[in-house]
TrEMBL record:
Residues 12-72 form the HTH tetR-type domain. Keywords: DNA-binding, Transcription, Transcription regulation. InterPro entries: Homeodomain-like_sf, HTH-type_TetR-like_transc_reg, HTH_TetR, MftR_C. Residues 35-54 bind DNA. GO terms for molecular function: DNA-binding transcription factor activity; transcription cis-regulatory region binding. This is TetR family transcriptional regulator. The keyword Isomerase does not apply. Pfam families: TetR_C_14 (PF17754), TetR_N (PF00440). It comes from Amycolatopsis acidicola. The keyword Transcription applies. It comes from the Bacteria.
Length: 191
């Protein structure tokens, strides 16, 4: 694998500067109290550059575009240890994310709290999670030897992907995550 070229490094640095500026400003003043123009200014870039890197707008500056999320979900299922069920692997994966992360840094916890408290961010996060439905269904089908068109697997994938939105806002998100997977194991034993 070759090292990224200068252009790719500059793009990555611009994306990181924009994300860092957005995080800082959102945590200081709240999501609704910050404009894209202020974020661009804080990152020393143009608003048009912000939208080139983050076409999803302000929400994407905090939550990304979902590609990493879908790939990470698939990897959690595909690369689980021998003897670990698909549902255990997915629960373990979600336990490291957002409001479920037990060992999150202070900033990561503050960002997770911001997402839970902000309607626009919460809705965007839910959209990102549910957008991974087809990918998750396909990897579960692949790993179980069932057809990717199996409605039961699509239902399972959808239920798993709704957990962050539903359980993440509970007073004890980790306990809610555990409860959600207890119910899923009853409906899909052996998965």
């Amino acid at each position: 694998m070759t090292a990224p070229g200068r252009r790719e490094r500059k793009k990555a640095a611009t994306r990181e500067a924009l994300s860092a500026a957005a995080r800082r400003l959102f945590l200081e003043r709240g999501f609704d109290g910050v404009t894209v123009a202020e974020i661009a200014e804080a990152a020393d870039t143009a608003v048009s550059t912000l939208f080139v890197h983050f076409p999803g707008g302000k929400e994407a500056l905090i939550l990304g575009d979902g590609e990493e999320r879908a790939q990470a979900l698939a990897d959690a299922v595909r690369h689980r240890a021998d003897g670990v069920s698909i549902l255990d692997a997915l629960q373990d994966f979600l336990a490291t994310r957002g409001p479920f992360a037990a060992k999150a840094s202070t900033e990561a916890q503050r960002v997770a709290d911001l997402v839970v408290r902000t309607a626009a961010l919460r809705a965007y996060a839910r959209t990102l999670w549910t957008a991974a439905e087809t990918d998750l269904t396909e990897v579960i089908a692949e790993q179980t030897g069932r057809a990717a068109g199996d409605l039961s697997l699509r239902l399972l994938a959808r239920y798993v992907l709704e957990i962050p939105d539903l359980a993440g806002v509970q007073p004890d998100p980790r306990a809610a995550l555990k409860l959600a997977f207890e119910h899923l194991r009853r409906g899909w034993p052996g998965v």
